[in-house]
Amino acid sequence: MIHPTKLMRGVFFALAILGAAPLAGTSIPVLGTAMAQAQEQLVGSVLFDGNKRFSDAQLLTMVDVSASGIFTQARLASDIESIRQAYDKDGYRSVGVTAKTETIPDGRVRVTFVVNEGDRAGIAAINFTGNNAINGGTLKGTLLTKETGFLSWLFKDDGYDEQKLAVDRERVRLYYATHGYPDAQVTSVGEYDAARNDYFINFTVNEGEKYEFGNVGIETSISGLNTNVLTGTVKTGQGSRYSITDLQKSIEDMSYEATTQGYSFADVRARLDRDVTNRKFNVTYLVDEGPRVYVERINITGNTKTRDFVVRRELEFAEGDPFNRSMVVRGRTAIQNLGFFSAVDITTQAGSSPDKVVINIAVTEQSTGDYGATAGYSTSDGVLGELSLTERNFLGRGQYLRAAVGASQSGRTFDFSFTDPRFMGLKVSAGVDAYHRISDEGDTNFYGSQSTGGQLRFGVPITRDLSATVFAGGERKVIVDEEGPTSTLVVDGHEYYKAFVGYTLTWNGVDNVKKPTEGLYATFTQQYIGWDHNLIKTEAKGRYFIPLMDDSGIVASIKGQAGVINDLSGNGVSPVEAFIPGGSLIRGFQSRGIGPRLSTGEYLGATMYAGVSAEIQFPLPVLPESYGLSGAIWADAAWVDGLPDFGANTVETGSTDTPWRTSIGASLLWDSPFGPLRGDFAHVLGKSSTDRTQVFQLTLSTLL
Predict the structure, then answer these.
(1) In degrees, to the nearest 5, what angle opens at C-alpha 544 toward C-alphas 543 and 546?
(2) Do both 92 and 126 map to the same domain?
(3) Which residues are paired to 611 by β-bridges?
(4) Quick one: pLDDT at residue 40?
(5) 395 occurs within a structural domain
(6) Domain range holding 96?
């Protein structure tokens, strides 16, 4: 008789032998799997060589051999393809990816992925066909995809991406739907030229017929609702071109206005009746009582840096308030306008009961800090540079902080600024500014100065377009006149002290602050200056934009500005507080180049000025839109008068023989990575005898 223990040992021995080659019809899955795992190797390390576009850390997230820790040829091949596809999506069509493996002393495998990136494929040209009403340059401006230009290496916006092209097709369609063509259809094809390593992208547009708005009316079932007030929110005026944007804006504003009247559940819809014969849409806005639904909860995700309250305070509703879709849309726009997030997505879901809704706000953080150095050139200050630190979302609290040190051939500046846009949780901004500025003696000024000062300011919105800012502060200025010629207006080492208080009214009615095409932007500032002075300084500036030739990109503007200093002491206005008009008032003249000056040539300044400018900006047809270049032609006229206090010195007759100056010219504008720059070429038509002119000036482009 065989002992049971020996019998069991024999069975196990036999099974171990048969595990590698089981008998026909015999299945031993556990032993078979164990043998297969015994043949696999563990991954000791994963390395990358030749990669520049993606870091090792980025590539490591794309490979499976690293995550699993088990090496197989199938996983290796899959990882090679994952890396190749990532490069291909980013525009590197000629990328080559291989892998090297070696066994290290502990029996594990070291995997090295070797990447030959090649050259990144660009966009050689973007072409449009079928776009009879809107030129291709204008349509290119709506695209996320850009043609390869001399700044593409910096912006990396010339890569071919199918997902981005899908968004671009929709952007072109919406542009047409906003400019009179509701039935426009857009398709696109990308063709890769291997010889050039470039893409050619062709958009085909079927525009359809152009429509305009016909009769516009409002109907409501809500008793007591003032429809006359609602009429003021309508953007779809009779005879104006069809615009889906104006329709949506009218619905949003009308719903908001109904809410302010106390009808929180008002629901606004637009009924469109198409008149094919006359190519018109008759619009009826239906304002009815919507379902009584309340906000149960607001969830915010994705804000890893920004505090929750910064997002919530942009909403005009809170948990427990009535749910109104237009308020949600306005909230989304307000959150986007913060500039803290690259994407804002708001969705809703059912709450715990039929009359409750949950609002989910998903945001994607983007960089809000700017740390760096800039250098440039100004025709008034020469070579200049600045080191700055800017944070638009300080500590995630939505506060603005900036510190900067600047230097130029005419002086140095030290600036600090801090702003809380919601002081104490209110819709009031509060800020503090401090500075120290050194102005050197030079060819245009007989004396220099060192100024140290600061101010407190508070801002409050009055209406949607109008806001007000009040400010108060002080300054100490020390005169520096150590080099000849010596000034006869001031004394070296003399100290001027001033305290000031004032306000600024700002009207912002333009469609786009960075690149306006229509609307009015204006400011009015008035301040009282005391201590060593006793005067009131008043300045008003405004600029009105209007598009010329629909969808051509040509924009006209008229700019006006004026200022006056009223002396309350009767002793005259000190030259250190006088206006210094120059190229900012009328182009073609140097800073301190306009107005009265002494017989010695020393500049006095002025106590009154006024100016008007007419300008037409247009795209440059021979250059790609992605270059950010445009042109302008203009005409300026200015009036400068009023003498500050200058003692018994003699005024140069030639500096006051006429108060009027005029000039014409052309400009080149560049939306550069360093800010919007403009170079103005001017020809002076009228001036005083001693005015100092200049043919060219380079400045930062501003609204006013």
Answers:
(1) 145
(2) no
(3) 561, 638
(4) 66
(5) no
(6) 39-119
Helix%, strand%, coil% for the chain, nearest 5: 20, 45, 35
Ramachandran quadrant class, 551 (left: phi over 0; alpha: psi -120 to 50; beta: rest): left
Q: What is the rounded CA–CA span in Å between residue 415 and residue 418?
A: 10
Mean pLDDT of the chain, nearest integer? 86
Given this model, what pLDDT does residue 153 score?
64
* pLDDT grade for 561, boundaries at 50, 70 and 90: very high
CATH no. for residue 328? 3.10.20.310
Contact 74, 99 (CB under 8 A): no
| Single-letter code of the amino acid located at 95 | V
Contacts of the segment 194-197: beta carbons below 8 A, 24+ positions apart = 194/93, 196/124, 197/93, 197/94, 197/118, 197/119, 197/121, 197/122
Would you list the DSSP string of 474-494? Answer: EEEEEEE--SSSPPSSS-TT-
Kindly state the helix (H) or strand (E) to which residue 311 belongs, with its residue range: helix 308-312
β-sheet bridge partners, residue 542 = 522, 560
Query: Residue 222, Cα to own-chain centre: how many angstroms?
Result: 41
Q: What residue type is 481 in one-letter code?
A: D
**How confident is the model at residue 383, as a pLDDT?**
63
Nearest to 54 by CA among 79, 80, 96, 90: 90
DSSP 23: P
Domains identified in the chain, total number: 5
pLDDT at residue 38, rounded to an integer: 38
Same structural domain, 157 and 66: no
Retrieve residue 261's tokens. 């009247």
In a domain, 25, yes or no: no
The C-alpha atoms of residue 30 and residue 41 are separated, in whole angstroms, by: 19
CB 492 within 8 A of CB 441: no
Q: Pick the last residue of a domain from 206, 221, 247.
A: 206
Please give the structure tokens belonging to residue 263. 């009808």
Name which of 204-213, 252-261, 497-506, 653-662 the model is least confident about.
653-662
In a domain, 468, yes or no: no
Whether pLDDT at 10 is above 60: no
**In the listed set 340, 365, 390, which residue is the last one of a domain according to the structure?**
365
Residue 654 DSSP label: G
Q: Rounded to two decimals, what is the model's pTM?
A: 0.76
169 and 129, same structural domain?
yes
* DSSP, residue by residue, 110-179: EEEEEEE--PPPEEEEEEEES-SSS-HHHHHTT-SS----TTHHHH------HHHHHHHHHHHHHHHHHT
Strands 399-408 and 382-394: antiparallel
* Contact call for residues 611 and 585 (beta carbons, < 8 A): yes
Give domain status of residue 424, yes or no. Answer: no
Q: What is the DSSP letter of 597?
A: B
